[in-house]
Design goal:
Layout (H helix, E strand, L loop, with lengths): L3 H5 L1 E4 L5 H10 L2 E4 L8 H22 L3 E6 L2 H14 L2 E6 L2 H4 L7 H10 L2 E4 L2 H8 L5 E3 L22 E3 L9 H10 L5 E4 L7 H5 L5 E5 L3 H10 L2 E4 L9 H8 L4 E4 L2 H6 L4 E4 L3 H13 L1 H30 L1 E2 L2 E2 L3
Length: 336
């Protein structure tokens, strides 16, 4: 009997779980290889965890023997492990490059290495035209691929119990999210409830101690609880100061048919063309955007449903192109 990973491929992610990675796993029939050894951050933590993750990845791949390997990037060290396996086994690999590869100061030093691996990859996956242009300059074979649609278990269900209206703020407490500004905006509209997601161990103490009365921090949510919060929200708010980033929180709102409030960047405006209120990173603009969305929930809901159907069609085309580049047919790799 042929092992499913050998027949179809694997997806390597150096994290305990990632929604985009899992989306590819589910949509393409891949075997997930999650390698996570520590949540600590910084140079010392990197030295502590990257070595074990490198070894774990190679052990899993040599055991599975996939002929196609997708790898979440950054970190570049995960790509290095996949490159080594593929070099020795003549397997193909595809790099799923998140915005941090191009935009994060943390990974700027790695760009020459990224170019080296990218030129030898079957394809480099990105989410927007700016990053596609960067990959073309390496030069490497780039392709824009959005997040795969969620599985049927996560789609909006009819007849849900009514809950008190709230805006769900999708956050990981990153510096680009401007959480203090979001809190000040919430303070200005006390009649609207806000629930802010994310592991509170990463939040600043003053945010937790001095937040407005209409704000609740949910803490870390399981995958099931997270999707329930998205489904039950009146609208979703997610922010970034990074210009060339397609926020997964916006994607999650769209596929759950929830009106979206998000940052007024060019990349986000190009992607979320319907059902979305764009705001500046000021308390006044965010508060006004939330009030606008709450006043137009039905209209924005219809629009976001139309956008979701457009993205489903786009994903089907992207998936076919991706399978061709990977040498896969219907999810199964073809012989080289």
């Amino acid at each position: 009997m042929i092992d499913s990973a050998t027949e179809k491929g694997a997806f390597v992610s150096w994290i305990a779980y990632h929604g985009r990675s899992q989306g590819f796993v589910d949509s393409l029939g891949l075997t997930p290889v999650y390698a996570s050894h520590s949540r600590r951050r910084g140079v010392a933590a990197a030295l502590f965890k990257y070595g074990p993750q490198f070894v774990t990845t190679l052990r899993r791949l040599y055991k599975l023997q996939p002929r196609v390997v997708f790898v979440m990037d950054p970190p570049v060290f995960a790509v290095a492990a996949v490159f080594l396996y593929c070099r020795q086994t003549r397997a193909r690999y595809l790099m799923d490059c998140h915005s941090g590869v191009f935009n994060s100061r943390k990974w700027q030093w790695s760009l020459p290495i990224q170019r080296y691996f990218g030129r030898r990859a079957a394809a480099v996956l990105v989410t927007n035209p700016a990053h596609l242009g960067a990959v073309a300059s390496w030069p490497a074979t780039g392709i824009i691929v959005g997040d795969p649609p969620p599985s049927g278990d996560h789609l909006p269900s009819a007849g849900r119990d009514r809950v008190e209206p709230y805006v769900f703020v999708i956050s990981v407490f990153g510096d680009d999210e401007d959480i203090p500004i979001v809190l000040e905006a919430a303070r200005r509209i006390p009649g609207v409830r806000f629930r802010i997601s994310g592991d509170t161990r990463r939040a600043r103490a003053e945010w937790l101690a001095n937040h407005p009365a209409n704000v609740e921090f949910t803490g870390f949510l399981s995958n099931e609880d997270f999707w329930e919060h998205v489904r039950d929200a009146s609208a979703v708010l997610t922010m970034t100061t990074r210009e060339d980033t397609i926020l997964r929180g916006g994607w999650e709102a769209m596929f759950m048919e929830r009106p979206l409030i998000t940052s007024n960047t060019s990349a986000l405006q190009r992607y979320f063309t319907l059902g979305t209120v764009f705001v500046e990173h000021t308390p006044e603009s965010i508060a006004a955007g939330v009030a606008d969305a709450m006043a137009r929930l039905e209209e924005l809901g219809r629009q976001i449903r139309s956008l979701r159907e457009e993205k489903y069609a786009t994903w089907r085309a992207e998936r076919e192109s991706l399978l061709r580049l990977a040498g896969m047919s219907g999810g199964a790799p073809q012989d080289q």
